[in-house]
Amino acid sequence: MVLRSALLVALLAAVSAAFAQERVQVVTTTTDLRSLAVAVGGDRIVAVSLVPPGMDAEEYQPKPQDVLRLKQARLVVRVGLDFDLWVDRLLAQVGRAEISRGGAAYVDASLAIAVLELRGMSVGPGDGHAHGSGNPHYWLDPKNAETITANILETLARIDPANAAAYEANRQAFLTRLTTKLAEWEMRLSPLRTMPIVAYHNSWPYFARRFRLDFVGFIETKPGVPPSPSHLAGIVRDMRARGARIVVREPNEPERDVAFVASRAGAQVVTLAASVGALPRADDYISLFDANVEALTAAAATR
Amino acid sequence: MIDALQFLWPPFLVAVCLVGIHAYFGIQVLARKVIFVDLALAQIAALGATVAFMLGHPAQSIATYGYSLSFTFLAAVLLAFTRSWGTRVPQEALIGVIYVVAAATAILLIDRAPQGAEHLKQILTGNILTSGFNDVALIVPLYAAVGLLHWVLRRHMAGAGSLVWEFVFYATFGIVVTSSVAIAGVLLVFSFLIIPAAIGVMFADSLSRQLAIGWIAGTLVSAAGLAASFVFDLPTGAAMVCAFGVSLALAGALYPFLRSDRRRSMHTAVTTVRWVGAIILVASALQLVLAPRADQPLFDFAEYVVPSLRAVYFTRAEATTFADASEHAERYRTQAEQLNETERRNRTEGQSLDDFTVARISSFLKSYGEMSKGEQFVMGEVRMRARERIRWPAALGLLAAALLLAPVPWRRLWPRQIG
Questions:
Q1: Which structural domains are found in chain A, ordered by start?
Q2: DSSP at B120
Q3: Residue boundaries of the structural domains of chain B
Q4: CATH architecture classification, B2-259
Q5: Residues near A232 by Cβ (< 8 Å), separated by ≥ 6?
Q6: Quick one: angle between helices B297-305 and B262-290, nearest 10?
Q7: Contact B147, B24 (CB under 8 A)
Q8: What are φ and ψ of residue A275, in 5° steps?
Q9: How confident is the model at residue A120, as a pLDDT?
Q10: pLDDT in tens, A32-47
Q11: Looking at residue A121, what DSSP letter applies?
Q12: Whether residue B36 has pLDDT greater than 70
């Protein structure tokens, strides 16, 4: 009896292992890249994101399981631009040449992205980022998904050439859908073009560029440092002078500071997701923008 | 100025309320020698809030507050017992264990409920700047009630009471800390608790005088910290904590003058300052001679304060190169800023830039960054070489200055026979 159940378990394990091997194991650093990898790979890949949904990817602390995931990964996709620096140490620990920087199964999704707000290696004045590689939140421009998925497709087709045509078709279908959606989002956000907006963290330049939104100030000037009174006073003064009615906050940012600024300036707080899974409705790349566009238009309508 | 008052008035009121209750608890905590008990209680309250998040209660709901409070009471029971357990192991050790275990447990739970991470961070840093009259309206009745209770029970609160009174002490303290930490963060609450109380205990013996001194000191230092944070554009909580640190140092320096022989204290103070100054000069001389290319803190500081000091030891060629590089670096920086600004404005104004133009801008920015870094390297190199060149005479000068400054009794060391 015992022997039989043991055999059964072994058989099951073998079958599931074989099944898993058929699908390409993809590890991404963030949920956004995971969603885009799935858009290319479809059900021929199994993608996991190291950073769980809703967590701040810039401050992520890797767990032992992450090493295991990377050991089994056939493809690694990262944000780059100093956004997910912690993955370098993980990759060094795993020590597989093909998924290390420059390896055949390593994708830096920021390759060929038109980077915004590059400031040499010095700390930019008051832009909330302590690195010089430019602003890393480039996935928030839906147009950039073309480049990101192209980067993923190129490497995926190289490591799994048998399915290259299917990946290509998946990507085309996704981009067609995205283009229609983009036109819809642009139309819905067009009334907000003249409205000045303040955000807690400078996550939104790419989003602002695509949808022509005017982010006039940020509450946080340096990551992890609470704003000074003179900075807050300046923001509130600016908001009053320019009639800014919207303060954008991400779910993992301090509620009190944002509510304080909003109440002083007579504005309302809009919670936006800067990555997939940060809000319950934003569960893939397209619904991320759906949710944000919905929240912004709702706020603009109630003013 | 009106701006400043408008922004600083509410947090100042909150700070006065917090100083009011915490200076009292601080004196008690110092007497009981349980210095870090507020950290443990605050962390336990945060753990309670985290559990509430995990169970799906929103922040600032009654349920979340209830969880915080129940956890705090549990901790109060534990803390009341730690005194009797603390015969072999010091009580502070047990309090530390409660703190770290509560903090670690909260991290483990947060891993399952990411929306709580913001709350935990908030507990750690707090932000007294964004507190307001609604906070005052909440804490004034609460602190008044706790204060009244302690006044009524003042005989039992003096320490060394039974388990029940110990529990009452820690439970009420827990209620206070739970609310204050949510407003100001653990760093600032710890300063409110310990520093005014320490200053009071230093200069007075009766509880009422200690309290009065603590309250006055705490209020003045809070005002100074808030003002400094506005004037120098600093994060408020951190500026206030440092102001409290400075105030304690000043009180410590003042203590011997008020408590013992004034002339002898003065003499000791001057001697100490002269020795410290001489040691800094000798160390700087050694650093300059042994590692002329390394950082020279004394030189760097002097040049930062008076940039024209460079003219003293730079040759004309060095001065020209330095000024040139500095001017170029500044020019590259401005040009990069202009490009960034152009791109930013184009997001909303006029024709939007295409990807190709944006990519070109970013490659220009990269070059400007590199060029600016190059100029800064030139500036550093020029300065290092100049210092290397003058290291022997400069070091001798520093040593001579150190000899003059050091309070060595030269006259007594001088052989008498010659004179």
A1: 23-182 (3.40.50.1980), 184-301 (3.40.50.1980)
A2: H
A3: 2-259, 282-405
A4: Orthogonal Bundle (1.10)
A5: A219, A260, A261, A264, B7, B129, B130
A6: 100
A7: yes
A8: -150, 160
A9: 58
A10: 999 999 999 988 999 9
A11: B
A12: yes
User: How far is Cα B86 from Cα B63, in angstroms, rounded to an integer?
Assistant: 34
Is residue B274 scored above 50 in pLDDT? Answer: yes
Mean pLDDT of B252-280: 85
Helix/strand number for chain B, H first, E second: 16, 0
What's the order of all strands across the beta sheet hosting A75-78?
A: A45-49, A24-28, A75-78, A106-108
Return the structure tokens found at B314: 């730079």
Structure tokens at B222: 């809070």
Q: How far apart are CA B152 and CA A91, in angstroms?
A: 63
CB A118 within 8 A of CB B341: no
* End-to-end CA, chain A: 71
Please judge whether A226 and B348 are an interchain contact, meaning their C-beta atoms are less than 8 angstroms apart.
no
User: DSSP character for A126?
Assistant: T
DSSP per-residue string spanning B404-419? HHS---HHHHS-TTT-
Residues of A in contact with B336 (CB under 8 A): 119-120
Nearest in space to B178 (alpha carbons), one of B22, B37, B46, B17: B46
- Asked if A119 and B365 come within 8 Å (Cβ–Cβ), the reply is yes
Which of B136-144's residues contact partners 24+ apart within 8 Å by CB, and which partners? B136/B10, B136/B13, B136/B14, B136/B17, B138/B179, B139/B14, B139/B17, B139/B18, B139/B179, B139/B180, B139/B183, B140/B17, B142/B175, B142/B176, B142/B179, B143/B17, B143/B20, B143/B21, B143/B176
In whole angstroms, how large is the CA radius of gyration of chain B?
Answer: 29
Q: Is A130 helix (H, G, I), strand (E, B) or coil?
A: coil
Q: What is the pLDDT of residue A21?
A: 52
DSSP A254: -
Using a CB-CB cut-off of 8 Å, the residues of chain A touching B125 are 226
Bridge-based pairing state of the strands A24-28 and A268-271? unpaired
Q: Which residue of B has its CA nearest to A144?
A: B355
Give the tens place of pLDDT for each residue, A65-106. 888 899 889 999 999 888 888 888 888 888 888 888 888 889
Q: Which of A121, A209, A252 sits opposite B369 (nearest CB)?
A: A121
Strands A196-199, A214-218: parallel, antiparallel or unpaired by DSSP? parallel
Q: Chain centroid to CA A45: how far?
A: 20
Taking CB atoms and an 8 Å cutoff, what residues of chain B touch A255? 59, 118
The strand order across the sheet containing A196-199 reads A214-218, A196-199, A246-249, A268-271
- Cα–Cα distance for residue pair B26/A51, rounded to 1 Å: 42
Contacts of residue A257 in chain B, CB cutoff 8 Å? 127, 130
Residues with Cβ within 8 Å of A10's Cβ and at least 6 positions away in sequence, in order, are none
Q: Residue A108: helix, strand or coil by DSSP? A: strand
At position B70, the amino acid (one-letter code) is: S
What pLDDT digit, counting tens, does each position of A153-200 carry?
999 999 989 989 999 999 999 999 999 999 999 999 888 887 889 999
3-state per-residue secondary structure call for A3-58: HHHHHHHHHHHHHHHHHHHHCEEEEECCHHHHHHHHHHHHHHEEEEECCCCCCCHH
Question: In this complex, how many residue pairs, one in chain A and one in chain B, have their CB atoms less than 8 Å apart?
Answer: 123
Question: What pLDDT score was predicted for residue A132?
Answer: 60
Residue whose token pair is 């507190």: B131
pTM (two decimals): 0.79
pLDDT at position B86 is 59
